[in-house]
Specification:
The protein contains no helices and eleven strands. The chain is mainly beta. Strand 7 and strand 8 form a beta hairpin.
């Protein structure tokens, strides 16, 4: 069965960095687009970033990021390791949230919240001094 397992969350000071990982299994990871979304306390779901899968035209790898994280967060993937990453730098208290690795049912990423058919359990990121 499909599994998405996030890791790498934690407590970090403002201005610090953190890298999240998502280990995927149970499907052809390389083919599909993958996404990171987050949910801050008391707020709705917020899209963070997408990366195309190999099924997209051009062979995949194109990335899309929300304006709120552009220039600070970088999404990447290692298809040989079936792993998705989110490198986060210059973290701000507003980045505090549970971060979810999610799989949309397609190979092409989308800039924004859309439908997802598989979710990880989430990993908590807290930015505080």
């Amino acid at each position: 069965q499909v599994q998405l397992v996030e890791s790498g969350g934690g407590l970090v000071r403002p201005g610090g960095s953190l890298t999240l990982s998502c280990a995927a299994s149970g499907f052809t990871f390389s083919f599909y687009a993958m996404s990171w979304v987050r949910q801050a306390p008391g707020k709705g779901l917020e899209w963070v970033s997408d990366i195309d899968g190999s099924g997209a035209s051009g062979g995949g790898g194109r990335t899309y990021s929300a304006d709120s994280v552009k220039g600070r967060f970088t999404i990447s993937r290692d298809n040989a390791k079936n792993t998705l990453y989110l490198q986060m730098s210059s973290l701000e208290p507003e980045d505090t949230a549970v971060y979810y690795c999610v799989r949309p049912p397609r190979a092409v990423g989308v800039a924004g919240i859309t439908e997802y058919d598989y979710w990880g359990q989430g990993t908590q990121v807290t930015v505080s001094s």
